[in-house]
Amino acid sequence: MPPSLPKTRIVAAFGKRAAQAGPSAETGGPDATLEFAAETAVATRNPELKAVRWREIATGAFLVLLVAASAAGTYWKDRWQSPAASSSGSLRIESDPAGAEVRVNGAARGTTPLSLTMAVGEYTLTVQQGTNVKELPVVVANGAVTVHHITWTDGSLAATLETGSLSVATDLTGGLVSVDGGDRGATPLTLRNLSAGQHRVVVRVGGATYTRTVQIEAGSTASLFIRGAAGTTPGWISIASPVVVQVFEGQRLIGTSDVDRIMIPGGEHDLELASDALGFRATRRVRVAAGQTVTVMLEMPIAPLSINAVPWAEVFIDGNRVGETPLANLPHTIGQHEIVFRHPQFGERRLTAVVTLKEANRVSMDMRPR
User: Fold this and answer.
1) CB 218 within 8 A of CB 162
2) First to last CA, the chain
């Protein structure tokens, strides 16, 4: 076997040829082919060069496999993480009374009470109950529950200017009432959203029929009392409550707390005051004197409220600082509360929450930028 060429000679030969080749070294001309053949022949005769050559080939193959594995890992990571990357929150809409139509960005979504899971973003919420319409912007935050409780105490301006209420009572309970030819229920009774102007009211009680013409003024409550066989003079009850409640007597709805007062026959009455949206019910026994108004005071019970934020936040409820998250089982009266979250880096977020007796009250907020 002929002796191997020294390494220094091989390097010098390649260096010399590269210097002499000029453009042919880049274009792969005949000199380049001769060089490759010479190098292969030398490597074949020299085991040390052969081992180096195989290490270079193995290193190149390993790098190719590593790049391919990295690309595949990135692809599957994106595939697996894409569902988790999507962000959403919850929007709950309640109204008193329930059954109001809900539209989000003009699309009908159902009636109150209604819970929706929606993508993070800003929306236009429209809630309509009869002639009352309330439209407001809402923000759905990632991982948070945004609650809006709609009451009609302030009503829409148009409804306030165009409608009024009528309270009808008789000295014998259970009188049947019709207004403008339509049956409306049994006394004692409060009717809302009657158009301003004159209305024909017919009351049937104690075997007799009474017909009256009543003038309804916009934004106020008219009272009508029919004295039958008992011959008593009516009185009124006024409900002082921080939330709107319905007033029942003998399972009959006689009015709501958002009217100034409810006319009722004189004497003793067992009343039930309720808000289904809040899970609240209470009973009161009142004695109504003829021509007098009895005020019924209601204090709302306490329910626990838990608040959390990501990563954390300073919390204010109805303008009062209550601490930093996480906050568990804070005692708060049932009803609607404004909650403000503040973070030194991520700014301020706020939402309206309704504390109820019906279920666990939990509120969360993601403070991170969206």
Assistant:
1) yes
2) 75
CA 154 to chain centre: 22
Residues 206-221: tens digit of each pLDDT: 777 888 888 888 877 8
Q: How far apart are CA 2 and CA 5, in angstroms?
A: 9
Pairing outcome for strands 197-205 and 208-216: antiparallel
- CA distances 70 to 46, 83, 84, Å, are 37, 21, 21
**Mean pLDDT computed over 328-336:** 93
Q: Over the stretch 117-161, which tens digit does the pLDDT of each residue have?
A: 888 888 888 888 877 788 877 777 776 667 676 766 544 444 445
Beta pairing, strands 302-310 & 361-366: parallel
Residue 331 tokens read as 């005692």
Q: What is the pTM of this model?
A: 0.50
> Which residue is it, tokens 């009266």?
333
Q: How far is CA 20 from CA 27, 219, 225, 343, in A?
A: 14, 105, 121, 71
| Distance (Å) of CA 225 to CA 20, 194, 231 | 121, 18, 11
With vertex at residue 256, the alpha carbon angle to CA 176 and CA 286, rounded to the nearest 5 degrees, is: 85
Which is it for the CA torsion 332, 333, 334, 337, positive or negative?
negative
Express each pLDDT in 16-58 by its tens digit.
333 344 444 444 444 444 444 444 444 445 555 555 566 666 6
Residues 188-217 as b/e (b if ≥16 CB within 10 A, e otherwise) read bbbbbebeeeebebbbbbeeeebeeebebe
DSSP state of 21: H
Domain ranges of the chain: 7-84, 88-154+301-366, 157-297
Give dist(CA 146, CA 238) in Å, integer.
33
